[in-house]
Amino acid sequence: MAVKIRLKRMGKIRAPYYRIVVADSRNKRDGRSIEEIGKYHPTEEPSFIEVNSERAQYWLGVGAQPSPQVEAILKLTGDWGIFKGDKNAVSTVKTKEAKEAFQADEKKKPVLKPKAEKPAEKPAEAPVDADASAAVATEAPAAEEAAANADKA
Q1: Residue 16: its pLDDT value, please?
Q2: What's the confidence (pLDDT) of residue 112?
Q3: 24: which strand partners?
Q4: Distance separating alpha carbons of residues 9 and 67, to the nearest angstrom
Q5: For the chain, how long is the longest CA-to-CA vector?
Q6: Residue 14 located in a structural domain
Q7: Nearest alpha-carbon partner for 39 in 31, 49, 30
Q8: What is the pLDDT along the chain (153 residues), one digit of tens a residue?
Q9: Would residue 136 count as lying in a domain?
Q10: Which candidate, 37, 27, 42, places its Cα nearest to that of 60?
Q11: What is the 3-state secondary structure (H, E, C) of 32-101?
C-alpha cells in the first residue's frame, strides 16, 4: 500500500484550514485517513502550523511520501531536516505574539457614570374635605355596577 502524508481540506468556502494526515494514496483528498499528525491554518497571520514531530518522523521512517505542500511545511518545522540526517534542524515557524493584558489608566476618570439616586417619593396626601372623600367612595361602586351590566348585554 502506498502511503502519503498530505493535506486534508476542511472549513468553509474561502475560509480553509487543513489537517496534515497520513492516508492511502488511493483514497480521496478529504476521505478516510490512517492518522492525523498536524494542523495548518493558512488564513491566519502568521499561518498556524502544528505538527506532531514524533509521529511525522515515524511515518517518514517507514516510507510515507509527503506531498510537495506537506514537504514545505515539514521543512519549516525542521522535521524534514531531522529525517534527512541534519542534527541541527530547527523550526522556523513564526508564532503569534501573546496579547498584552489590559491595564486601565489610573490617571483618567471613569467613563461610566454612577446611577443617579431617585428622589424620595412623597406620601400621597389625604383629601382635606370630608365631602370629597365620600364622593369618591360612592363613585366606585357605581362604576363596578355599570361594568357588570355591560358584560351581561
Answers
A1: 93
A2: 72
A3: 3
A4: 14
A5: 110
A6: yes
A7: 49
A8: 799 999 999 999 999 999 999 999 898 888 888 999 999 999 988 889 999 999 999 999 999 999 999 999 999 999 998 898 887 888 888 888 888 888 877 787 777 777 777 766 776 665 566 555 555 555 556 666 666 666 665
A9: no
A10: 37
A11: CCCEEEEEEECCCCCCEEEECHHHHHHHHHCCCEECHHHHHHHHHHCHHHHHHCCCCCCCCCCCCCCCCC
How far apart (Å, rounded) are the C-alpha atoms in residues 4 and 26? Answer: 9
How many domains does the chain fold into? 1
Burial class (CB in 10 A: 0-12, 13-18, 19+), 37: buried
Torsion over CA: 124, 126, 129, 135 (sign): positive
Asked whether the beta carbons of 91 and 76 are under 8 A apart, the reply is: yes
99 located within any domain = no
DSSP codes, 14-38 = TEEEEEEEEEETTS-TTS--SEEEE
Which tens digit of pLDDT belongs to each residue from 113-132? 777 777 667 766 655 665 55
Nearest to 94 by CA among 48, 27, 136, 134: 48
What CATH number does the domain containing 23 carry?
3.30.1320.10
Domain contains 70: yes
Range(s) of the domain holding residue 74: 3-84
